[in-house]
Amino acid sequence: MSWLNVKHAMDLSPWIRIPLMWPEPGLEDVDEAQTPEAWARYFAEGLWADFASEKPKPGEVDLLSNILLMYAVRAPAAFPDFEVFLHLPHPRDIPLPAYVDLVEIEEGEDQRTALRELTHADASYAVEPPIVEDFDSPHLGTGLRVLRYYQDADSNEVHVGLRYAWRYEKGTEAADVLIILADPDAGRILRALDDVDEFARTIRISPDEEVGTWNSS
User: Fold this and answer.
1) CB distance 11 to 216 below 8 Å
2) 3-class state of residue 175 by DSSP
3) Is 168 in contact with 146 (CB distance < 8 Å)?
4) Model confidence pTM above 0.90
5) Distances (CA, A) of 62 to 43, 47, 67, 178, 204
6) Section 188-192 average pLDDT
7) Partners of 76 in the beta sheet?
8) Helix, strand, or coil (residue 97)
9) What does the domain layout of the chain look like in residue ranges?
């Protein structure tokens, strides 16, 4: 068996991974992995420290800590069991969540058809034809990247969605890899596109025997 390997993305700036359990398994002795509050405070202070030439205004560290805490609690619920990363290039920016997971392949499902369905490449609800492009990964081969604009059912606002998908097949193993992002601000997605592409190219599938070393470099 194989598993979704996100360890390289964990060290990729400007991305922050949200643990899916507290304390995070295997990190029981790491203070910031114990609770979402500790995690949020650790990264809020660390992000502002990274911008040493730009001092935070009074209350900005607390504000970022509260924002990160909100995402740590709420973001994983949007796509349960998906790995969750936040794109946050500056501590005053609003985080942009990215979700990554493996998707089981239905028996007899054609690869191209499956990837188009996963990426909503033919979405009838899009307000204009989605932008569908082949996307190459050094680890997963050629997949799809789809950018689409759609009307949110709750707010009636036009949102932008960005999805990547690949088919992974090795021996008797097969699964689809899916990355999901969405935001009401098209500019936010477009400004992050180069970073998201870089992030997507770090995702890989690893043999199950390597799972115990996934936190190593």
Assistant:
1) no
2) strand
3) no
4) yes
5) 11, 12, 9, 34, 35
6) 96
7) none
8) strand
9) 2-209
Condensed to tens digits (0 to 9), the pLDDT of residues 61-106 reads 999 999 999 999 999 999 999 999 999 999 999 999 999 999 999 8
Structure-block tokens of residue 193: 């596109």
Q: How far is CA 163 from CA 31, 48, 105, 216, in A?
A: 34, 30, 17, 28
Residue 24 is given by DSSP the state P
Q: Which two tokens stand for residue 44?
A: 């809020």
Answer yes or no: are the C-beta atoms of 174 and 167 closer than 8 Å: yes
Burial of 142 (0-12, 13-18, 19+ CB in 10 A): exposed
Torsion, Cα 114 158 64 18, to 10 degrees, reads -10
Residue 107 half-sphere exposure toward CB, CA atoms < 13 A: 0
